[in-house]
Amino acid sequence: MTTTQLIQQIQNKKSFLCIGLDVDLQKIPSHLLTLEDPIFEFNKAIIDATHDLCVSYKPNMAFYEAHGLKGWTSLQKTINYINENYPEIFTIADAKRGDIGNTSTMYAKAFLEDLNFDSVTVAPYMGKDSVEPFLAFENKHTILLALTSNEGAFDFQTQNVNHEALYQKVIKTSKTWKNSQNLMYVVGATKAEYFAEIRKIVPDSFLLVPGVGAQGGSLSEVCKYGMNEAVGLLINSSRAIIYASNGADFAEKAREEALLLQQEMEGILKINL
Amino acid sequence: MTTTQLIQQIQNKKSFLCIGLDVDLQKIPSHLLTLEDPIFEFNKAIIDATHDLCVSYKPNMAFYEAHGLKGWTSLQKTINYINENYPEIFTIADAKRGDIGNTSTMYAKAFLEDLNFDSVTVAPYMGKDSVEPFLAFENKHTILLALTSNEGAFDFQTQNVNHEALYQKVIKTSKTWKNSQNLMYVVGATKAEYFAEIRKIVPDSFLLVPGVGAQGGSLSEVCKYGMNEAVGLLINSSRAIIYASNGADFAEKAREEALLLQQEMEGILKINL
Predict the structure, then answer these.
(1) What is each CA distance from B50 to A179, B120, B175, in whole angstroms?
(2) What family, per the record (chains A, B) (predicted)?
(3) In this predicted structure, what is the pLDDT of residue A214?
(4) Residue of B nearest to A100 (CA)
(5) What value, to the nearest 5°, has the Cα angle with vertex B124 and ends A119 and B149?
(6) Least CB-CB distance to A127: which of B106, B107, B154?
(7) Which residue of chain B is at minimal alpha-carbon distance from A166?
(8) Interchain proximity A66–B106, CB inside 8 Å
(9) DSSP H or E segment with residue B262
(10) What DSSP state is assigned to residue B251?
(11) What is chain A's alpha carbon radius of gyration, rounded to the nearest angstrom?
């Protein structure tokens, strides 16, 4: 998917919501557990109930790998289901990979080619040659960890490296890499005050923003400092939407939660754009 | 596996060799490709031919994930084969994972519990709460990326953070984390001169050292600066061993290459310990 198509989708749906599919068997409705593939059935119901309110789905790889072969099957069925039924959706493999060049190439092929996700999250610690293999895929996107939403972000990401924070150095350096136009960045909603600083470095890039909801970030604060003329934000919510209910009405309740966020976003878009 | 058991194995085998199982279908002998599971058959032959010369195997997750369900099956069969037939071997899931706490917990369970690896490689960028879930498993080991063997290591890892390099800060900080006794570190062989500095911070920890062979690092240089009284090194070689031949004699040739390294290690151990 091109960035232009993503922006068009945001305008059509009046939403920049990404729904995280972090599916935990201990949290989904128990009536699904008797089915052959509870994770896929859960995802399918959530996707069918929310696809017109969000622009992106983000399965978190850990929650699928934790179930080995069965989990990998659920993941394949989920991405195929989205691509076949809702091809306008921007899909994110939340994998946080990154390794030496030939290994990163294998990961990139796995997520961007074989599974056919539109994008994948990547960790920056190993530098240029660990990220560029992901950037080589046309009309695919690499979402680089910059400033994450967890407490541990302060251990290294905000530390000073030659008069700037490490996360700033990561973003600046990444702009010099080959095919850097395919980069987006993860910036946690729990650190809204940092968005203004980040927008000085990457005014045009899309930012994937976790941490709204369960982790305590504020949507309006993030938009105030992080939005650009093309919106430039994908706001992720996982648990608050997909676990809104664990009864038979789980998909309906997920839709209600997604709708609340979409309406808040529509209001923000009206004022700002 | 306890660290004491690993050290005992090193003493018994007079080897601190780790063999990387980075299996690429385009590089393995073509006669294997007609079998039902070429990757597992390749690994099985390599393992049977080299298990007495090495103390560790390190499957690289990317090379398995790249084949989806089939790759995951090959991985499961490989780790089960090692655990059942050569339980003394220290197994490493080279996964380079790391995410917010509940996600890292899922990854840790997948690799350390379900697949039953002895250890897993983890990226430090997201800090304490992204690594501690891996450290919580008793007699399992978390191998934290410190200073990697690739060119991109100079982008961030060697940058100065308050008068020390980022990789030094990562190692020092990680020592303050809960269950830090379960930590080992990745330090690339291509940067032998850094080992002395690292040994000042972690004199007793095991270091996993990639980059000998294909990437150009020198075994004797690494040992000169990196070895401690309990050896404290696992030297990884992947391509130079497993792709020594792509004919019918691939396992035999892999053994010859592994034997050369084991003998060099035996010589170093005689002089140093």
Answers:
(1) 42, 22, 34
(2) Belongs to the OMP decarboxylase family. Type 2 subfamily.
(3) 64
(4) B150
(5) 85
(6) B154
(7) B156
(8) yes
(9) helix B250-272
(10) H
(11) 18
Alpha-carbon distance A105 to A128, whole Å? 13
Give me the pLDDT at residue B214, please: 64
Looking at the complex, report in whole angstroms how far the Cα of residue A194 sits from the nearest Cα belonging to chain B: 17
Contact call for A152 and B129, based on CB within 8 A: yes
Among chain A residues, the shortest Cα distance to B63 is held by A106
Could you tell me which residues come within 8 angstroms of residue A4 by beta carbon, excluding any fewer than 6 positions away?
Answer: none
| Number of neighbours of residue B18 by Cβ within 10 angstroms | 25
Any catalytic annotation for residue B96? yes
Distance CA A193, CA A225 (A): 7
Instruction: Return the amino acid letter for A170.
Output: V
Distance (Å, whole) CA B28 – CA B251: 11
* Beta carbons of B151 and A170 less than 8 Å apart: no
pLDDT of residue B153: 96
Nearest to A166 by CA among B185, B5, B157, B70: B157
Q: How far is A271 from chain B (nearest CA, A)?
A: 33
Distance CA A148, CA A60 (A): 15
Nearest to A62 by CA among A24, A26, A33, A35: A24
Locate B175 and state its tokens: 């020592």
Number of residue pairs across A and B with CB atoms under 8 Å? 180
Tell whether B72 is within 8 A of chain A (Cβ).
yes
The rounded distance, in Å, linking the Cα atoms of A57 and A17 is: 9
* A:206-235 residues touching chain B, CB 8 A cutoff: 210, 215
Q: What is the C-alpha to C-alpha distance for residues A83 and B264, in angstroms, rounded to an integer? A: 53
A22 has a pLDDT exceeding 90: yes
- What backbone phi and psi angles, to 5 degrees, belong to A96? 50, 50
Residue B193, pLDDT score = 83
Name residues whose C-beta falls within 8 Å of residue B195's C-beta, 6 or more positions apart in sequence: B187, B207, B222, B225, B226
In whole angstroms, what is the distance from residue A169 CA to residue B159 CA? 10
Read off the amino acid at residue B85: N
Per the residue annotation, which of B44, B96, B109, B253 is the catalytic one? B96
Q: What's CA A267's distance to the chain center, in Å? A: 22
Task: Kindly report, residue by residue over A99-116, the tens digit of the pLDDT.
Answer: 999 999 999 999 999 999
Which domains does chain B carry? 3-272 (3.20.20.70)
Under DSSP, is residue B263 helix (H, G, I), strand (E, B) or coil?
A: helix
Tokens of B252: 């035999």
First vs last Cα of chain A: how many Å apart?
Answer: 23
Tokens of A174: 């990444």
Would the pLDDT of A273 be above 80?
Answer: no
Give the tokens for residue A209: 């923003």
Cα-based distances in Å from B242 to B39, B47, B228, B236: 12, 10, 28, 12
The answer to whether B144 and B183 have CB atoms below 8 angstroms apart is: yes
